[in-house]
Amino acid sequence: MTDLADLASDVRIDLRLIADLIAPGSRVLDVGCGDGALLELLERTRGVDARGIEISQEGVNAAVARGLSVIQGDADSDLVQYPDQSFDYVVLSHTIQATRNARRVLDEMLRIGRRVVVSLPNFGHLDVRFRLMFLGRMPVSKRLPYSWYDTPNIHFCTIRDFVELAREVGAHVEQAIVLDGAGKRLPFSLPWIVWNVLGAQAVFLLSRDGR
Amino acid sequence: MLDATLTETDAQASLRRSEADNPSSLVMRFGTDAPLTLDAGPAIAPWQIAYQTYGELNADRSNAILICHALTGDQHVASTNPVTGKPGWWTLMVGPGRPIDTDRFFVICSNVLGGCLGTTGPASTNPDTGQPYGLDLPVVTIADMVRAQAMLVTALGIDQLFAVVGGSMGGMQALQWAASYPERVFSAVAIATSYRHSSQNIAFHEVGRQAVMADPDWCGGRYLEAGRNPKKGLAVARMAAHITYMSDRSLHQKFGRNLQDREAVAFGFDADFQIESYLRHQGMSFVDRFDANSYLYVTRATDYFDLAADHGGVLANVFRGTKTRFCLLSFTSDWLYPTAESRAVVHALNAAGAPVSFVEIDSDRGHDSFLLDIPEQFRIVRGFLTGAARARGIAGPAEEDNR
Q1: CB within 8 Å: B347 and A78
Q2: Interface test with B, best of A55, A64, A86 (most B CBs within 10 A)
Q3: Which residues of B are catalytic?
Q4: What's the CA gap between A157 and A120, in Å, rounded?
Q5: B60 belongs to an annotated ligand binding site
Q6: Mean pLDDT across B266-276
Q7: CATH number, position B120
Q8: What does the pLDDT look like over B329-381, one tens digit per residue?
Q9: Which residues make beta-bridge pairs with A50?
Q10: What ipTM does the predicted assembly reach?
Q11: A66 and B380: CB-CB below 8 Å?
């Protein structure tokens, strides 16, 4: 799902940002963990009890070969197996756009984890808008390297779309971090509408309301 | 025909007989003061368990790995089999520099209870009669096999195994170890296996057992005293079972409809097709090395296997609170123990909160894939043991080499 090699250097920032949100020694489930880069980072630097799910065999092989507890599975169908509140954090990094039922996946994550971390590419970014408006083509870039007909990314959304989804499933946005196309953090003070245009990707820390 | 080539030398037969009581491997003998209790009810004593070891046990006895063999395997996982003269059955996995690295780990592999290569089984001498047990040996279970292994491990002075590893019936034992002795298993690797035998699994085994028992040379199980051997029945049992170890695709790729040493079909019942010739060969070479009654016992043990049954039918309860780290592997074309069975174990482990790694490996070679040169399998086991060794604070396997 998450093709870290293609997403190159700016996703490393995204992973570091996620790592910064996670308390040391906690239990973490990374859904769509790819080759386990984030889990390894968390295990080594923050001493977390790290678990992962990944759909691709290559990804799981690489992650297990790193010594991580990762199973081959599908975010859309396999989250139901986990008990309520069995993790401190459930992470979905650059994977939500590849799920069939993003709302249900987010719902399940909020059930399994006390907190949920979601990072996503922003389809409302200036560059995407530019390509659609002036070139009339679906955007293909370093960050979104697939053509429309062979992409695993079937449910793109914008930052504002995601914030709306979070509200619908009753999640509270505890923190939001938005990065521009160069991987630089956009200032907190900017309104959502600006983030939605200038943000290339975003990281959200969510929890259920009232917890 | 089958019988034309079913000639066993007296030397082979007597070698097999002597291995049953006095194996050429190591053997641990337990007297009447250390009976082995069985699920079927009675305890047996004296009894014995034959085993091999590889590598060195470290000072704090924390680097021991137990390998559990499959249905008709033996303790010679990485050493020459004394009956067949063939190399160990898992030398791709176990040895110096291999994923189960004998330069780093102390590896134990024992013959299963009910087997015929030195652990107490139906071919062993019944101390009460001085004759082979035959069917007088109580039926054994996977849990009994594991209980016997646990007594061996204790006798070797090892408290906790760093890993229990096995494929097929060996994987069942690995899961049973984790269920019976969670505190004694730091990590468990279960490959191409299941948590219970399906109706289809039992059906195939029943065909095999009926073939053995239908052979007049079986003599109601007392063929050893009669100086006979139900080779035809056992060969047919092996032929039927062997089909289940391969995939339709691998059979087709290997043999297709190719004819054996002939230009056209012979309009008879000789082995016209290569697949027939191959199966006959598999059946015939099996009877030279395996005891027919043992085959009844080990197939029965797997049929009775149902890990969830003792825990209210809920698999997750089997592993509740476990600290063992698990690694499960399945193969896409394995229809004997299909991926769904492994996945059920993985889901149960997730529900129990246990650390688990799981991969379904792409292979078109069927159930037997676990014994074959599938590099992905070795990479994953090496990686898993590396991570587990790090967590246990011992040396892991050597980095992957290209030997």
Answers
A1: yes
A2: A64
A3: 168, 334, 367
A4: 8
A5: no
A6: 94
A7: 3.40.50.1820
A8: 999 999 999 999 999 999 999 999 999 999 999 999 999 999 999 999 999 99
A9: A28
A10: 0.83
A11: no
B357 and B370 in one domain? yes
Q: Is residue B289 part of a domain?
A: yes
- Distance between A59 CA and the closest CA of chain B, angstroms: 10
pLDDT (0 to 100) of residue B259:
95
Mean pLDDT of B304-313: 93
Per-residue pLDDT for B304 more than 70?
Answer: yes
Q: How many interface pairs between A and B have CB atoms less than 8 angstroms apart?
A: 64
How many folded domains does chain B comprise? 2
Does one domain contain both B66 and B85? yes
- Which candidate in B314, B328, B358, B382 is best for mutational testing of the A interface (most A CBs within 10 A)? B358
- For chain A, the structural domain boundaries read 4-208
| B74 plus B182 within the same structural domain | yes
**Candidates 3.40.50.150, 1.10.760.10, 3.30.565.10, 3.90.1150.10; correct CATH number of A4-208?**
3.40.50.150
Say whether the peptide bond before residue B46 is cis (omega within 30 degrees of 0): yes
**Out of B359, B382, B386, whose CB is closest to A60?**
B359
* H or E element that contains B307: none
Residues A138-173 pLDDT 10s: 888 777 788 888 888 888 889 999 999 999 999 999
How far is it, in rounded angstroms, from Cα B184 to Cα B168? 21
Which letter does DSSP use for residue B216 in this model?
G
Q: Is residue B12 part of a domain?
A: no
List B196's β-bridge partners, or say none: B306
- Residue numbers of A between 161 and 180 with CB closer than 8 Å to B: none
Percent of residues in chain A assigned helix, strand, coil, to nearest 5: 40, 25, 35
B241-269 pLDDT tens trace: 999 999 999 999 999 999 999 999 999 99
CATH label of the domain that carries residue B290: 1.10.1740.110
Say if residue B215 is in the same domain as residue B313: no
Stated pTM of the model: 0.92
Range with lowest mean pLDDT among A70-79, A118-127, B10-19: B10-19
> Are both B293 and B349 inside the same structural domain?
no
Residues pairing with B361 in the sheet = B331
What range does the domain containing B358 cover?
24-198+308-392
Residue B62 CA neighbour count, 13 Å, CB half: 12
Task: For A152, list phi and psi in degrees, rounded to 5.
Answer: -75, -10
Q: Does A56 touch chain B (CB under 8 A)?
A: no
Residues B187 and B249 in one domain: no
The closest CB to that of A72, out of B350, B358, B384, belongs to: B358
